Amino acid sequence: MNLFVDALAWLTDPANWTGAGSIPQRIIEHLWISAVVLVIAAAIALPLGGVIGHTGRGREPAVMVSGGLRALPTLGVLTLFALWLGIGLQAPVIALVILAIPPLLAGAYAGFESVDRRTVDAARAVGMREVQIVGKVELPLSLPIVVGGIRSATLQIIATATLAAYVSDFGLGRFIFAGLKTRDYGEMLGGSLLVIILALVVDGGFALTQRLAVPAGVRAARTAENTELRSGPTRPRAVVGRPIIEGNQE
Amino acid sequence: MIEFRGVTKQFPDGTVAVRDVDIVIPPHKTTVFVGSSGSGKTTLLRMINRMVDPSGGQVLIDGTDVATVDPVRLRRGIGYVMQNSGLLPHRKVIDNVATVPMLRGTKKREAHAHALELLDTVGLDRSLADRYPSQLSGGQQQRVGVARGLAVDPNILLMDEPFGAVDPIVRAELQQELLRLQGELGKTVVFVTHDIDEAFLLGDQVVIMQQGGKISQAASPAEILAHPADAFVADFVGADRGKRALHLTEVDGRSIVVDADGRPAGVLTS
C-alpha cells in the first residue's frame, strides 16, 4: 500500500506539474508520438486492408504477415532499430508502427469482408464504379469494424509508447525509466498510472466513436430485430464493440 | 431488341453455365427465363448488363455488341431489380431510388423529386421516403427495388427472381402490380424465375431452360401448353397433370372445368 501512497504523493506534488519534464508536457509528448504512429500505420494498413477486403485477394499473405508482425517483441524491435538508427525518435516510431499495423489491417479487411456481398453486387449492377462501391457502400458499412481496429491499435500504441523513453527523452515512459533508475517507485508507479488513465480515456472516446460509426439504417435494422425477437442473451449487437477477428478464420 | 448469338459461358473451373444459346428478346414485351437452379437463367440475364461476360458468342442490344460498351455506362442505362431488393441498407429509401440518376449527374433536388414520383408509380406511400430499407416489409422493399430500377427511365428492365423472397400473397400482389406497370410503361422486361406459374402469368415470351444452360423451348405460354417441344418441357409445365390437365363436366346444364385432381377450376362461358 505504501507504494500507492508514494505514487499519490508524487502525482499530487505541484512541482511535478510545471516546468520542463512535467506531467502535462509528458502527456502531450505521449499523445503526440501515439498520434504520429497511428497516422503512419493507418496510411499503410487501411488502404491495404481495404484493397484486400474489396477484391478478396491477398488475404492469406496478409493474415500471415500480420500474424508474424504480432509475434515480434516490440522491445526487441526497438533495440534493433535503435542500434541501427541511434538515439532519438525514429526507432520507437518504427517499432510502434510495426506494432500497430496488424490490428489496423485486420480491422480493415474484416470490416470490408463483413459487408453483404449481395449489397455490393447490387451496387455494381446498378452502375457504380469500383471506387464508388468502396467509398459509398463498403466503407460506410464496414466503418464500425474499421474503427474497432483503429481503437485496438491506438490502445496498444499508447500502452507501448512508454518504450520511446528507453532510447529518447520523450513521453510518459520517462517517469517509469527514471523512477526505476533512481529507485523512486512512487514516480514509477505514478507514471504507470498516468499511462493507464490516458489509455482508458482515449479508449472511452473510441468506444463512443465506434457506436456513432454504425450507419443509421443499420442501427434501425438492429432496433427492429431487437423489438421483434426479444431474445435476451442472444440479442444481436454483434458489430458494435466486436473485437478484431483475426487468425481464426478458415 | 436484345439478341443472344451463339452465347456460351464456361467458368474457369470448367463448369458450363450456358451452352450455345440463340434467342431474340423482342422490345416492349416481357420475356421470362424459367428453369430450375443450375439452368443458367440468371447467367443469361446478367450477360445483358455485363455483370457476366460470355466466353463465346455475342449479346447485342439494338444491334450493338455489349462487349464494346463500357460496363458502367451500360449498367446505368439498364434497370436492375434483384431478389432481396439489393437496396443499400445505410441509405434512406429516397436516396436508394435516386442512386443511379445521381451517379449520372442529376442534381439531388431533381433526383429526389423524381424519386417521389416513382414511389407513386410503384404504389408506395411518399411517407416511406425517409425510412431505411430495414424498416420496410419485404414486399415494400421489392417495390423500392423496382422504383430504383425505373429511376433512369431505362428501355430495358432486368428482374432476377424479384419476387422470390416474399410470401405468396404479397407475391401475387407484386405480380399484378408488375402487369399493370408493364401495361403503362411498355418496357423490354427480362425476368428470371423458377416458378412456371409466374412465368406463364407475366411472360409474353417464355423461355424454358434445362440443366447445363440449354434452351428447351421459347414461345408464348399458350404455344408451350399446346405444343410442348419435348418431354422435358411437357413435364416441366405439367401439361398432362394437376391443375393444367382440365376437362369438362356437365352440372345442371352448365359446363364446369375440372382439373386432374377433380377440383373445380371454373365455369366455361360461351
UniProtKB/TrEMBL annotation, chain A:
Keywords: Membrane, Transmembrane, Transmembrane helix, Transport. It holds the Pfam family BPD_transp_1. Signal peptide: none annotated. It is found in: Cell membrane; Membrane. The chain crosses the membrane at residues 31-55, 67-87, 93-112, 157-177, 189-208. Residues 27-206 form the ABC transmembrane type-1 domain. InterPro entries: ABC_transp_perm/SBD (IPR051204), MetI-like (IPR000515), MetI-like_sf (IPR035906). GO terms for biological process: glycine betaine transport; transmembrane transport. One of its GO terms (cellular component) is plasma membrane. It is a multi-pass membrane protein. It comes from the Bacteria. Belongs to the binding-protein-dependent transport system permease family. PANTHER family: GLYCINE BETAINE/L-PROLINE TRANSPORT SYSTEM PERMEASE PROTEIN PROW, POSSIBLE OSMOPROTECTANT (GLYCINE BETAINE_CARNITINE_CHOLINE_L-PROLINE) TRANSPORT INTEGRAL MEMBRANE PROTEIN ABC TRANSPORTER PROZ. This is ABC transporter permease.
UniProtKB/TrEMBL annotation, chain B:
The keyword Iron does not apply. Residues 2-237 form the ABC transporter domain. It comes from the Bacteria. InterPro entries: AAA+_ATPase, ABC_transporter-like_ATP-bd, ABC_transporter-like_CS, P-loop_NTPase. Its EC number is 7.6.2.9. Gene3D superfamilies: P-loop containing nucleotide triphosphate hydrolases. SUPFAM superfamilies: P-loop containing nucleoside triphosphate hydrolases. Pfam families: ABC_tran. Keywords: ATP-binding, Nucleotide-binding, Transport. One of its GO terms (molecular function) is ABC-type quaternary ammonium compound transporting activity. Belongs to the ABC transporter superfamily. This is ABC-type quaternary amine transporter. It comes from Agromyces tardus. The lineage of its organism: Bacteria, Bacillati, Actinomycetota, Actinomycetes, Micrococcales.
